[in-house]
C-alpha cells in the first residue's frame, strides 16, 4: 500500500474512533510535517555521491595534514539540510579521523609521510525502498609519498567498494546512517577491523607451520640472493603492478566471494608469472599447487593452504622479521591471532629497509609494510622468502 493510501486509511480509522471517544495518533509527533516516501532524483543522487566523496576524502586527508576546507574543518561539516550525516554517523567519522591521526603519527615514527592525497568517489548503484536508500560507491585513492628515505615509490593507492545507507526523516531529508565496506576493508585510510576467514582449514600434527615474524623496526640484515633460485622476481612484481586493479581474465576473480577474497589467488598468479611451476594433483591436497581459468588447487587460492604448500615444498623459507622482505617475497597476516591466517600480499619494491606490498581485496599497490603494521599493530605476521 502506498504512503498516501496508508495515511488515508489511518485518518479514516481515526475519525471513526473519535466518535467512539478514542483518538488514534500517527507514528510521527503531532503537528509535525510528514511527507510521502521521498523520491531520489538525479540531483539527490549527485548529493549522495558528493557526501560520500567528502567522507572518504576527509579520511585520506587525515593521513596527510588533517585539514580540508579553508577553516581547517572536515568537508563533511559543510553538509546540512536535504542530505547530511546523522548525528551517530558524525560521531563515527570523528572517531575515524582521530584514529587516522594516530596512525599518521605512528607512520612518522617509522619514517613514512605523505605529501598529498587524492580521493574520488563514483556512484555505482542506488536502491531505494521507502525511506531507506542503499548506495554502492567505488572509492579511488592515491597517496603521494614524501621523500623521507629518498627512493620510496612515487605513490600508493587503492580502489575500495562501499555501501552507504541513507535514511529519510519525516521531512524527507536524507541522513547518512551507515557505511559498510563491501570488499575486505584493507585500505590505508580505513579504520574498521578487517573481516577474517572462519577457521575451516583442517590442520594436523604433520601440517607444516610457519613461525611468526617480528615487526620491530628496523629488521636485522638478511639480503636476498636474486639469482640462486632461477626465479624472475622482477616479473612477479611487474605482474602484480599490472593486475592490481585490472584483473587478469585468464583467472577467476574471487573478490567479494566471502572472507579471504582474491588475495591468495592474485599472489599465486604473480608467483607463477615469475617461474613457480604447477604441481598437479587433487585440489584438496595442500602438497599440490596449480591454477588456471578452469580449476585451482586450494593451495593456489587459500591463505592457509598456500602457506602449507610453500613450507612443505621448500619453495619458501621463513623470515624472522617483516622488514627483511624483498621483491617477490610474500607477507601473510592473522588479524585476530587465532592461528588461522587471513590475508596474503606480495612485495613489489623495497626502499632502504622497508618493503612495499601489492594485493587484492582491497585492491592496493605499493603500500608499505610499515603502514600495514601501523594499521594492525596487534596482528600476527608471517614473512616468506621465495
Structural class: alpha+beta
Order of helices and strands: HHEHEEEEHHHHEEEEEHE
Rough outline: globular
Mean of residue pLDDT values: 87
Summarize the model shown.
This protein has 386 residues and is α+β, with helices and mostly antiparallel strands. It has helices spanning 3-19, 42-62, 87-109, 233-243, 263-273, 298-301, 303-312, 369-375; strands at residues 83-85, 114-129, 132-145, 155-168, 174-181, 317-319, 330-334, 343-351, 354-359, 363-368, 380-385. Strands 1, 2, 3, 4, 5, 6, 7, 8, 9, 10 and 11 form an 11-stranded mixed beta sheet that branches.
Topology:
Blueprint: H1 3-19, H2 42-62, E1 83-85, H3 87-109, E2 114-129, E3 132-145, E4 155-168, E5 174-181, H4 233-243, H5 263-273, H6 298-301, H7 303-312, E6 317-319, E7 330-334, E8 343-351, E9 354-359, E10 363-368, H8 369-375, E11 380-385
Parallel strand pairs: 1-5
Antiparallel strand pairs: 2-3, 3-4, 4-5, 4-10, 6-11, 7-8, 7-11, 8-9, 9-10
Helix pairs in contact: 2-3, 4-5
What would the keywords be for this entry?
8 helices, disordered N terminus, alpha+beta, 386 residues, globular
Structure description:
The protein is α+β, with helices and mostly antiparallel strands. Helix content is 27%, strand content 23%. It has 8 helices and 11 strands. Strands 1, 2, 3, 4, 5, 6, 7, 8, 9, 10 and 11 form an 11-stranded mixed beta sheet that branches. A hairpin with a 2-residue loop joins strand 8 and strand 9. Helix 2 runs parallel beside helix 3 and helix 4 crosses helix 5. The longest helix has 23 residues. The protein is globular. The N and C termini lie far apart (63 Å).
